[in-house]
Write a structure and sequence with these properties.
The complex is a heterodimer of chains A (249) and B (438).
Chain A (H helix, E strand, L loop, with lengths): L1 E10 L2 E11 L4 E5 L6 H9 L5 E9 L2 E2 L5 H7 L1 E4 L6 E5 H15 L7 H14 L4 H5 L1 E2 L5 H15 L3 E5 L7 H13 L6 E6 L3 H5 L4 E6 L2 E6 L2 H9 L2 H7 L1
Parallel strand pairs in A: 3-10, 3-11, 6-9, 9-10
Antiparallel strand pairs in A: 1-2, 1-4, 4-5, 7-8, 11-12
Helix pairs in contact in A: 2-3, 4-6, 6-7
Chain B lengths: L10 H13 L7 H17 L14 H4 L26 E7 L2 E2 L13 E4 H6 L15 H9 L4 E5 L8 E8 L4 E10 L4 E10 L6 E10 L4 E9 L5 E10 L4 E8 L4 E10 L5 E10 L4 E10 L5 E10 L4 E10 L7 E10 L5 E10 L5 E10 L2 H8 L5 H19 L3 H23 L1
Parallel strand pairs in B: 1-5, 4-6, 5-7, 6-8, 7-9, 8-10, 9-11, 10-12, 11-13, 12-14, 13-15, 14-16, 15-17, 16-18, 17-19
Antiparallel strand pairs in B: 1-2, 3-4
Helix pairs in contact in B: 2-5, 6-7, 7-8
Classes of the chains: A alpha/beta (249), B alpha/beta (438).
Chain lengths: 249, 438
């Protein structure tokens, strides 16, 4: 599904990714853990096609196809989804208008017919109920006045509707209390499928109690420095990142 | 105004002088109106066309922008093409003014029972006191020029207590390269209610100049919604002025949408004459290419306990220049006034510009006044959020710009007019998107 080889990326003069190698096979959930500043969020933005990063070396293959020159909207239509660490509030854009625009734009890009309004409404209703996203939230402008938990639920709602092949979850647990974490994790777990890969980026192990990964990678100073099973997360929780920060320095 | 005697006249000023000299005896009106015209033209000649050293016209230097002046509409037989109706589908009565002349046979005055429509020419002949009544405090060369040369237009009278069922559009249409000077007079009695859409359109490619002055007097406890659509032809110059006084406990909601003309200036002067009146004043500008659009707002809180809300939004593309000047005056005795003005510019291109000049002059001590001005580009984070969901860039920008303008358009609080104006904004954005794709 996703193959990253020797990926180097910088912002301005600052080199952030320094040779990332990562393979996420179809249907697997991989976690990336690492200290602050190790390049985790940059990796998520580079994968989803955000402007402002210079890819100086390496390749990103998605479904076997190089995507470095593909704009963000085309990557989305191809099946890459980023759940934001800080979902944006967009005053004046109604949540439903946004959802419909996103869904239909992706369908159009894939050569599929646009959804009829009743079909769209039905899909939103089904997905929203599972995530405790209320009709009142859906009536508001996108994320405006939403609590941290509501914003994260809205991210997972979008993921459920857009049905990506690869979901990148960037610090999805940040700002969530334990109840909200459970709702969000249940939502994510419900979307696990043999056809879908996930890349779960997190600083803390606790999210991985809920979304149990197949593989855990440790990122430090812009590289993957260690990979292992779910037990690696527990080891990090016990010992911290100190050894990795020193190793990288 | 500039105190120095002016010696050099521009070609445009010379033409205007020649036009006035030739037209003065044919212009309609009583002897008193004729002397008012002479006085107004003398006042105009003394200062000439506004230029950048005139503070109120700082960003719109008409001396430089008006290279020439087309012939007056007067006595010219014009049979141009009437452009498409931009408000099609919006239910309203229509007063149609073509090339400065009220055309009853093209108008639709149904559904406005209780209101009286009279050609302004009749008021000029009858030396009606309402002509010029709202302009006393306005020292403006363009208004003087209008007084000197005014011909067409209409007077709308809504008597006390009457609610006019349908909105009334005053449709100003210009079909040829002429100079048009229109004067409208609107009087809304106490406890009456009226919705007005003042529209301005004209032929594509026609270098006409429209100077329209409207004087409105709104009685106590009346409720008036007044929307203006400036969608003039692409080669035209639009100079529009609305001078309005609002009485005790009135509610006056006003929106100006500016999208047409090559050079445009829209002036709104609101004077609070009765206490506890509320004014909502909104503006939405959408321009591109080399367009220049200036909105000037003057709010005079002459009495206590008035409330005004000002929110102006401008979107500039290409090499366009957007301007907003807002001046709020709170007179010495006007205590407990509450005025808040916000203006925001959104630049869609590197070469566009936005200038904002908010001014507060507060002479009373127990008031609440605030103003803010911002100018910036589309927020990168918001744009990326939409792109990351698969929404193409042009569509994402359209969503964000629509949301930006909606705050001003919805501020008017009139759903039908809001929907009609949002549709016009949508067309502008769609045209922009298709140009970008081409």
């Amino acid at each position: 599904m996703l193959e990253i080889r020797n990926l180097h990326a910088s912002v301005g003069d600052r080199q952030i990714l320094r040779g990332v190698d990562l393979v996420v096979p179809t249907g697997e959930v991989h976690a990336i853990m690492g200290p602050n500043g190790s390049g985790k969020s940059t990796l998520s933005y580079v994968l989803s096609g955000r402007d402002g990063y210079d890819i100086t070396e390496g390749e990103i293959l998605f479904d076997g196809k190089e995507i470095i020159d593909m704009p963000a909207e085309e990557r989305a239509a191809a099946g890459i989804f980023l759940a934001f660490q800080y979902p944006l509030e967009i005053p004046g854009v109604a949540t439903m208008t946004f959802l419909k625009a996103a869904l239909n734009a992706q369908r159009k890009a894939r050569g599929e017919a646009e959804l009829t309004t009743p079909d769209f409404m039905r899909r939103v209703k089904v997905a929203a109920e599972k995530l405790n996203v209320t009709q009142e939230m859906l009536r508001r402008p996108l994320n405006v006045g939403f609590s941290g938990g509501e914003k994260k639920r809205n991210e997972i709602l979008q993921m459920a509707l857009l049905e990506p092949k690869l979901a990148i979850l960037d610090e999805t647990d940040s700002g969530l209390d334990i109840d909200a974490l459970r709702v969000v994790s249940d939502g994510v777990n419900a979307l696990r499928s043999p056809n879908r890969s996930m890349l779960v980026i997190t600083h803390y192990q606790r999210l991985l109690d809920h979304i149990v990964p197949d593989v855990v990678h440790v990122m430090s100073a812009g590289r993957i420095v260690r990979s292992g099973g779910p037990e690696l997360a527990l080891e990090l929780e016990a010992n911290g990142y100190a050894g990795y920060v020193e190793a990288a320095a | 105004m500039n105190a120095q005697p002016r010696i050099l006249r521009t070609q445009a000023e010379d033409t205007l002088a020649a036009e006035f000299a030739a037209a003065r005896t044919q212009l309609p009106g009583s002897t008193a109106i004729a002397s008012a015209r002479e006085a107004a033209f003398a006042a105009f000649q003394k200062v000439g066309l506004p230029h950048r050293r005139v503070e109120a016209w700082k960003y719109t230097d008409l001396r430089a922008l008006l290279r020439s002046v087309p012939p007056l509409a007067l006595d010219i037989a014009v049979d141009g093409v009437v452009p498409a109706d931009p408000l099609i589908g919006f239910d309203r009565a229509r007063i149609v003014i073509i090339d400065g002349v009220f055309r009853p046979e093209l108008s639709d005055l149904s559904g406005i029972e209780g209101a009286t429509i009279t050609p302004t020419v009749e008021l000029l002949r009858a030396d009606d006191a309402r002509i010029g009544a709202r302009l006393g405090a306005i020292d403006d060369a363009v208004v003087s020029l209008n007084t000197a040369l005014m011909v067409g237009g209409v007077a709308i009278d809504v008597p006390e207590g009457v609610t006019v069922a349908r909105a009334i559009e005053i449709a100003h249409v210009t079909t040829a390269a002429i100079g048009v000077h229109v004067r409208n007079i609107v009087t809304v009695g106490a406890d009456a209610s009226l919705r007005v859409v003042e529209s301005h359109v004209g032929s594509v490619g026609s270098a006409y100049q429209a100077n329209v002055v409207t004087e409105a007097t709104i009685g106590d406890r009346a409720k008036v919604v007044w929307a203006k659509l400036q969608a003039e032809g692409d080669a035209s110059v639009h100079l529009g002025t609305l001078a309005v006084s609002i009485g005790k406990e009135t509610q006056f909601d006003h929106l100006v949408l500016m999208t047409g003309a090559t050079v445009s200036r829209s002036q709104t002067f609101v004077t609070f004459t009765g206490e506890f009146a509320r004014a909502g004043l909104f503006g939405a500008t959408m321009i591109g290419g080399r367009q220049h659009a200036d909105i000037m707002l003057g709010v005079d809180h002459a009495v206590p306990n008035g409330q005004s809300r000002e929110r102006f939004k401008a979107v500039m593309d290409g090499r366009a220049d957007g301007i907003f000047q807002g001046r709020i005056v709170v007179r010495p005795d006007a205590q407990k006034v509450d005025a808040r003005m916000m203006t925001q510019g959104l630049l869609l291109s590197e070469e566009s510009s936005f200038s904002a000049k908010p001014e507060l002059e507060i002479f009373a001590d127990d008031v609440q006044c605030a103003h803010g001005a911002t100018s910036g580009q589309i927020d990168d984070d918001m744009l990326f959020y939409l792109l990351s969901r698969g929404i193409p860039k042009a569509e994402a920008e359209t969503l964000l710009v629509t949301a930006f303008l909606a705050e001003a358009i919805e501020g008017l609080g009139d759903e039908a007019i809001g929907a009609a104006f949002e549709a016009i904004a949508g067309q502008w954005l769609a045209a922009r998107g298709s140009e970008a794709a081409a």
